[in-house]
Amino acid sequence: MMETALTRLVGIRHPIVQTGMGWVAGPRLVSATANAGALGILASATMTTDRLREAIREVRSRTDAPFGVNLRADAADAADRVSIMIEEGVRVASFALAPSPELIAELKGAGVVVIPSVGARRHAEKVAAWGADAVLVQGGEGGGHTGEVATTVLLPQVVDAVRIPVVAAGGFFDGRGLVAALAYGAAGVAMGTRFLLTSDSTVPEAVKARYLTATVRDVTVTRAMDGLPHRMLRTELVDSLENSGRARALLHALRRAAGFRRLSGLSWRQMARDGRAMKHGKELSWSQVLLAANTPMLLKSAMVDGRTDLGVMASGQVAAVIEDLPSCAELVAGVVAQAEEIIGELARGGASMRT
């Protein structure tokens, strides 16, 4: 048991978080992570509210350990999802975007730990001032929507700026990274791609195989999805999207957005509200907003349907150094054991450490 401010805050045994990846972080992966002593985060943005309640109960049936749910703070039905979490006794609320002070207060009043994700120091300062219990900070190495600042630069900035536990994300996959994050002052690490590439992940084997063969050059950042930087594996689809004319790209986006509307249970009005929220504070055209609505279906094509030719495979840079598919229990135990060994060696003066 490696105790930190994060483990004490949420009641887990090890300072490791499995991130809420859409179409990936379902009940099986989340419960396996929780049973391994880490914090599993259920991805809810691609679920209807009814399915969210079912998924929470399914996780609860598989584990007695704490777990969390990831929400989109700007979603039209965010308040309904928060109510479900509170009713179902979820321990942690994770947010991809900063929740409002009112939402934070409601969750904290119900005893839910609030951990927003941020990509800049000023964002961390803002949510800390609003009452967030901890913050997850992702550097540019992380998968999905990402920033330009490396974790090794961004993390110490945030640690120095706030007085709440900081969880480091972006570029972590083993015990060495955990020790480095702790040395920077973080209370733990969060990993997405590393948990995606486990035997407990429901991602189709053909897709996992594609990740395992990726090199550093195969992990790229593109703006073809929605005009914002998005880190993923480079595929023929990515090349096609980058080279498509705007009219063709928008036609495909509209069709896939309609598909996501049916799966999510959202109305066109709700999706339009979400689109306006996405535009807020960002220089996005309505064309880019429509392309953003396309992204969930492109992710589903790969992560659920196994179509490496038609789907998008969000990926952190660490995909290039991952070579195996351990269970969550094996992964967490291995990360902690390696971290403890390194800390022990450092305490002994690093006698047997490489120099």
Short description:
The protein contains 15 helices and eleven strands. The protein has helices at residues 5-10, 27-35, 49-62, 78-88, 101-109, 121-129, 151-161, 175-184, 193-196, 205-212, 236-243, 246-264, 268-279, 286-303, 328-347, and strands spanning 16-18, 39-43, 67-71, 92-95, 113-118, 135-138, 144-145, 166-169, 188-191, 219-222, 230-233.
List keywords for this structure.
TIM Barrel; alpha/beta; 2 domains; 8-stranded parallel barrel; 355 residues; globular; 13% strand; 11 strands
Structure description:
- This protein is α/β, with parallel strands linked by helices and 355 residues long.
- It has two domains: 5-201 and 325-347, TIM Barrel (Alpha-Beta Barrel), CATH 3.20.20.70; 205-303, no CATH class.
- It has helices at 5-10, 27-35, 49-62, 78-88, 101-109, 121-129, 151-161, 175-184, 193-196, 205-212, 236-243, 246-264, 268-279, 286-303, 328-347; strands spanning 16-18, 39-43, 67-71, 92-95, 113-118, 135-138, 144-145, 166-169, 188-191, 219-222, 230-233.
- The strands form two sheets. It has an eight-stranded parallel β-barrel with strand order 1-2-3-4-5-6-8-9, surrounded by seven helices. A three-stranded antiparallel β-sheet has the order 7-11-10, with no helix packed on it.
- Helix 8 links the parallel strand 8 (166-169) and strand 9 (188-191).
- The protein is globular, with a radius of gyration of 19 Å.
| Fourth-level CATH superfamily of the largest domain | Aldolase class I
Largest sheet: spatial strand order? 1-2-3-4-5-6-8-9
Helix content: 40-55%
Q: Work out the count of structural domains.
A: 2
Number of strands: 11
The CATH class assignment of the largest domain is: Alpha Beta
